[in-house]
Here is the input.
Amino acid sequence: PPPVKGGKNEPYSILVKLKWSMVHFSFAAKEFPSPRQAPFFHGIVVIVPVSWEAMKQSIQISLPAAWLLLITLAACVPRITPHDTPALTVEELRNTGYQSTWAAGGMAQLRAGEFRQPVAQGSATQLTIRLAETAFGDMNGDGAVDAAVILVTDPGGSGVFFDLAAVINNNGAPRHVATALLGDRIRIRSFAIEAGQIRLEMLTHGPNDPMCCPTRIMRATYALAGNSLIETASEVIGQTAENREKPLPHDLIGPTWQWRNPAETVPASRPRRYTLAFHADGSLAIVADCNQVQGTYTLKGNDLAITLGPATMAFCGDESLDRRYLDQLGQAASLAIEDGRLLLHLKNHAGTMTFDRSAP
Here is the structure.
């Protein structure tokens, strides 16, 4: 029944007047118990009390006018532009946590781009995970700038493993969601996010390549699918002659090698206290300042892997370089002898240890 005039339920209508082709239309959108409950639109909208008969007359509207009304109201609704979310930064990526099967507890929290952890209690050898490269772009289609990173894991043995990690922009904060293994001791040549996919060019190992020196050029494409990185394409595009294996030095075994003071490493104040001797049975004798260390090595071509074993654990003083010396030995990836000096090239291009023959 019609409401009582002046009562609490007197109807109100949204009266929208539109001018189109010199024709006036009147549209009553909805009844409201009170003007305060009527929705607000940015447009030519006026809220007026009308009688029941006036509202029935105003509801008679042509179909073209109804469509025009909907278009007008849609245009008046405030639009949310794609992502005002801040982009991730390199500094954030260098100080976030990444899932890792190598780290105790399954999580590696990077600090200044690196995570370190002893491989065993009391061991001088450490697991190292570092952030090597970054790329930025939207990977999941939400308009926010995500990131992909290359994580390099040195577990303290012979391998150095490269992982591709996808990091989603979670309201301005990085969140690691997926990882894909790229390979052992590969080299990244280019790395980018394009059209929502991660594109890489890298050097991988051919069938006859030593582990130190990959020569096969490969391109690969990865896409984020949920919480997984899927390789969508890969192809070998060529081969490079760079870093091919050099002949194995014949005078490696026999002498005691003494760590010298190269410019690319922290100088050893007492070089005679930092020595290395290779034995034919695959064992190593190491002097690290006031400590004696046993170890083993494997050598394939120039590809070298050093495994540190039992060691004395004496404190050699605050200025001792014994820990740094042993850490660098554990990172040796290849060797060469040039001009009578032994060169140990470290993993991930981290430097070179230089040794002189110890005087008898």
The radius of gyration is 35 Å. Confidence is low (pLDDT under 50) at residues 8-50, 78-82, 262-268.
